Amino acid sequence: MKFNFDLEDIKYIKIVCSDNKGNPCSIKGAIKSITEREVMACAKYEDKLDIKTPQNITLSIVCVEGLYRTKTNLKSVYDEPPYMIFAMETPQGMEYEQNREYFRIPAKYECAYYLNDGEKTNCLTSQTSDISANGVSIVLPMHAISEEDCELEMMINERLIRTKVKYVRSEKLENGYKISFTYTKISDHDRDYISQICIKKQLEQKRNIVL
Questions:
Q1: Contact at 8 Å (CB) between 38 and 87?
Q2: Contact 89, 75 (CB under 8 A)
């Protein structure tokens, strides 16, 4: 699809990149302007954030109708406190990633992550950070990922859900890492159950905003 947006249709963006030490980081912000050659975005200023430039990044764009994702080049980052300004090359295209039903919502559930290191399987207990009918993120004290699909068990409202997951991306946190996965093997019943949970939480969030 052609990269073509009206600014009023964009709710927010996410930039997935690396800092100067090679650590993965995810930055939520807003688009200021779009031209044929350049996209300008801003995010809340973070004193300790040192972003490498130039570098290839993943740019996610959340609109009213869904989520789009693309690759582009981050040309420069400069500070204008209380904001950071990001200058990116305008992407040539984009992919429609998921509709509103599959938006991830913040949710904390106990989980067990079975990490394959080639010789043995280690079980790491954790909590989810967010979840959708398409994938899940968990928080770990270390950056532990498996190159192959691995197993994840989640206890959601007294229901045990077992699924195969594939690593997607990581985000550095103050107390560890948020590791994001997409489901590669999950039963239709479990996916539908998670979808209903997400829709219910979305409705609760809307009611809270109204109140």
A1: yes
A2: yes
Give mean pLDDT in consecutive 10-residue pieces for the chain, a chain of 211 residues: 77 89 88 92 85 92 79 93 92 71 81 83 92 92 86 94 92 90 92 86 62 44
Indicate left, alpha or beta for 202 from its phi (over 0: left) and psi (-120 to 50: alpha): alpha
* 3-class SS string, 140-169: ECCCCCCCCCEEEEEEECCEEEEEEEEEEE
Q: Cα(12)–Cα(209) distance, rounded to whole angstroms?
A: 17
Q: Is the pTM of this model over 0.70?
A: no
3-state SS class at 134: coil
Task: Provide the token pair at 60.
Answer: 């996610």
